[in-house]
## 1
Amino acid sequence: MAIFEGRFTEASGLRIAVVVARFNDLVTTRLLSGCLDCLSRHGIDVTASSSQLDVAWVPGSFEIPLVAQRLAASGRYQVVITLGAVIRGDTPHFDVVVAEASKGVAAAARETGIPVIFGVLTTDTLQQALERAGIKSNLGWSYGLQALEMGSLMAGLPG
Ligand code: INI
């Protein structure tokens, strides 16, 4: 019997792309900072001269899937992380943006075979989003961890 599970200690060989939405950048810049802190503490070079990490900015969460798919298909990265914040209170078309972002991210992963981490916060208020982006905890850190786990897991799977 084989048991497949990702490790967090073999990150040095990974190349990672992060796609971040500028919309609600009060929240998304904090998610990015938590994510980079996690990656850095697990051995990823997150400095400006890094050849292991690239960051792509998109206007909003709606645009995340297109860019995530392009980067995943490039062959350069083993994992793509997406970061965004969609806040219901301020967004009449909340459901449309969230549905497109989530379905698009899932499709990008399936169609390329590269894990694409869904790091788009969906909350009712800006306060809730900020609480999850550093005021209480920072989910950006968790998304970084999930990326490391999936990168390692996929590398160990057959096929
Ligand atoms: N994009 C977000 O990432 N979060 C939001 O809360 C949001 N609101 O409120 O509308 C949002 N809209 C922009 C959207 O993602 C696209 O950038 C825009 O529609 C252009 O395609």
## 2
Amino acid sequence: MDKEKIVVVDFGGQYNQLIARRIRQCHVYSEVWPYTVALEKLADPSVKGIIFTGGPNSVYDEKSPHIDPKIFSLGKPILGICYGAQLIAYELGGEVTHAETSEYGKTIITRIGDSKILGRFSSPSEVFMSHTDRVSKLPEGFKATAKTEHCPIAAFEAPDKLIYATQFHPEVRHTLEGQKALEDFTYNICGCKPTWKSESFITEQVEEIRKQVGDKKVLLGLSGGVDSAVTAALISKAIGKNLYCVFVDHGLLRKNEAKEVEDVFGPNGKFDLNFIPVDASKLFFSKLQGVSDPEQKRKIIGATFLEVFEEETNKLDDVEFLAQGTIYPDRIESGLGISAKIKSHHNVGGLPKNMKFKGLVEPLKNLFKDEVREVGKLLGLPDSIVYRQPFPGPGLGVRIIGEVTPEKVRIVQEADYIYREEIKKAGLDKNISQYFAALSNMRSVGVMGDSRTYDYAVVLRAVQTDDFMTAKPYLIPNDVMINIVDRIVNEVKGVNRVLYDFTSKPPSTIELE
Ligand code: XMP
């Protein structure tokens, strides 16, 4: 029998992978399957429970997704969430109506009677709602277990049928006690044991990768970032020297970064793989000479990266698979029938178009960032990589306003190094989502000793964000800031002024270009 799991049946909700992740947090394996999955697959003894996700449709829409009602006779515990709850009511003879008042966001529920799934909830309790339709009449044999001001049936269940439903989203953090409902469903109702761990993920993926690629060679572009590093460590564990990692140094990395990557993955590192470093900095600098438009710079860096990557990989014989460090948030959350989208953001220029591969290896594609970090730690990667801040593919190229020159790159590297060193020393590094030094293209007058200077102004940025779509400036304490500024102007030749960028996103972006 396959390993025991909870299957999340995807009806197009935004949070479907989040549900699976919350179940994995209970140390029980969970996967998302499309709603079109064959019933026999769900009938497999390894499937201990089924969760129906939310979705954008109304059960009455002509094109709304439905599922074979025989699913309710499989004898498996089922939990319906939002659209999933309405679908259960509709399929089993209840009624769903279009409510006059939509509920969106934080909402208060009050418990009604006993419940096997809300048994540990307080009453009242704060939950996250996002619906217009609601269940207005329960099917026979069901009882309501919670209500809100506008929704008399906010949760319902029929324990003898093993069916449970919540109109709210237990998987979302705004549902303060949501994890309790998922735990009770997983452990008490489905009878799962909390035995699945990140170690199990590694063992399973190692097997899976071996099965997929056999004795063939796999190519991976290493960027030094968390995702590609964890992918490399994992694949190397599976196939050792059949993994070829090409690391293109475009000369726009942070100070010492290329060396750090080499120390971990190179011949003196602890991983068994082929490490192919390529120092292409001269080529990048020559192509960037005289170019100051941000979009043009990005395009040149992307195209040159691809050119170098292709040239290097063309030297390798019989590579049949391409590996990518795609993680779940990189994929389009298109809802129904999610299909893996090739990550283009991180890969600077997208995929090598002239190379034909037999297949893609993306072992992290269902994981969230913190799960990836956990796997990375277990695989023995150093903290400097596991907790590395996001770094744009075009590197310092988008942190230098205007033309990029080796001299400007040196200035940013030195200033950024000091900034990072001092933030770490002050114990702030884990509190700030992203912080870095950039170079304004501005020079201004200063005085050094008895002489006039006309030097560059460095820009310091520090932001706090959950999703990097919006961000707020992080307030660095004055004493720490004064120390950083003093060190930068004293130690970095060519800088006589330091500015602190205090703008939110929007209207700014996090990077300067
Ligand atoms: P912006 O500047 O758009 O950045 O507010 C949002 C987040 O994305 C990162 N970023 C990039 N990452 N390739 C990447 O892999 C890129 O071209 C790129 N541009 C921005 C940025 O560092 C921030 O975390």
